[in-house]
Amino acid sequence: MYGRHLYNLQFMEKYKAFTGNEWLAFYPRDPPRHKIWPADYFGQEHRVRTSETQFVSMPPWEDLRSYELDPQKRKQSDEIPFKQYRSPEPAMDITLRAVSCAPRIGDSRRPSDHDNTRTSLNTWVYREESPIIDAIYRRVADLLEMDEALLRTRTAEEHPELGGVKGSIAEPLQMVHYEVGQEYTAHHDFGYSQMSDPYEPSRSINVLLYLNDVEEGGETSFPRWMNAETTGSLDVKPEKGKVRLFCCVVLCCVVLIGRCAVWDSTIRSIETYSSCSSCVLLFVQAVLFYMLLPDGNSDDLTQHAALPVIKGEKWMSNLWIWDPFKQ
Question: Which residues, 6 or more positions from 112, have their beta carbon under 8 angstroms from its beta carbon?
Fold first, then answer.
């Protein structure tokens, strides 16, 4: 163990001399297994299509409660559930646009009372609780061009390359609420695994959803954002916008951030429903950022903060995905 630590220190010196950045992992570390959307220049666009179409009206609660949801049994060829409450379009098109290149860019509800860095309230929502929540995970999988089976418990035949690990690589959906004055000071979402763990599992991707307009404040701030024009932070305003969500939790589209990129995203296929009086639609903006670099290093530039809400309130959600699997 001492020898590996010494070897890692030697590699850290060479890595910083070569890249100018700190090495924040243990060498050697495998590169991320999951796709990273490239962000080679500002405004670069990528397009994704998903069959998980938008809910345009709310299914009756009694039908949702009685629905026997088993994400493992639903196949890609099966008809999507509650189709009569969704958009009649056969698919939903998502456009991702890079707006930054460096960085590329159970159940409880209580304050975080162990420190004063985070003063919001939060709770966790599991994929298996509702077909609406299940739709979020499937849409995120399509967005990331990832097999949805990775985001749930799997059978022994699914993804044997994970060495028998059958658990989801995604965490439950975290719902967060900020009131006036509440904040989350600058932090990283990734963590550090044991040196003895050869896989070094860590949070790799965060899909962050804004669920309402905040009257003032509450921005997600990336203080280490790098560009050629300013040394100031990149502040993403929490507002409903080009992405659509149903019932505050059904993701339709996303924005991306990481040393690979900050992305702006737009849905193309259901614009005609924006003025429909019978639709229960919430327009939101979202952020997706990668916490691991293509070389396996953790991305220090993804440090971010939730700035204090000055007026109004803020509702948001996080969906964290691990690489190569969740510890």
Answer: 118, 119, 120, 122
